[in-house]
Amino acid sequence: MSYTVLSFDNDTFTNFAFYSGIVLAKTLIMGPLTSQARIRHKVYGNPEDTKFFAPGVAVNTTDSTVERIRRCHLNDLENVVPFTLIGLLYVSAEPDYDKALMIFRVFAASRILHTISYLVPLPQPARASCFFVGWGATAAMTAFLFARMYKYV
Ligand SMILES: N[C@@H](CCC(=O)N[C@@H](CS)C(=O)NCC(=O)O)C(=O)O
């Protein structure tokens, strides 16, 4: 039977799928969380939205709660998408299993803690630390990838 690196035959890929699934699901939740805050605070950014959901309420694009959740969502997109794409290339380069697992776990934990720090909110440097740890995990995968590719290009 043939072995494929990007399949559940490969334990590194299985773990990557699990931890990316967690951070992608966390990112996906941010949309409904924003909607919930909009409904609770009656905050809508478009005239057609206020007309339908809250007639008589003015358009508002500056609510601090809604904007905070939106920034948190954007920060996830800035970090989770690169992690997922670079992670696929990283797994295909067949890294050491234990090191890869540690990178996946550190990234997932850092992003969950980043969200908690952003939404509670916790005083800095809590959120900045979470961001840099997660960024470092993706940077480590990128460095490994280039070191591995260097031989071939
Ligand atoms: N796009 C980010 C790049 C740097 C970054 O991600 N910083 C972290 C730690 S301070 C963060 O949580 N930034 C807040 C944000 O993206 O809204 C920014 O504008 O701040």
TrEMBL record:
Query: Mind listing the UniProt keywords for this protein, alphabetically?
Result: Acetylation, Endoplasmic reticulum, Membrane, Mitochondrion, Mitochondrion outer membrane, Transferase, Transmembrane, Transmembrane helix
- Which SUPFAM superfamilies would you find in this protein's record? MAPEG domain-like
InterPro entries assigned to the protein according to its UniProt record, in alphabetical order: MAPEG-like_dom_sf (IPR023352), Membr-assoc_MAPEG (IPR001129), MGST1-like (IPR040162)
Instruction: Give the principal location in a single coarse category.
Output: endoplasmic reticulum
The EC number of this protein is: 2.5.1.18
The regions listed as transmembrane in this protein's record are 16-34, 126-147
Q: Kindly state the subunit structure of this protein.
A: Homotrimer; The trimer binds only one molecule of glutathione.
Spell out the family assignment given in the record's similarity comment: Belongs to the MAPEG family.
Please state what the protein is called: Microsomal glutathione S-transferase 1
Q: Could you tell me which species this protein originates from? A: Batillaria attramentaria
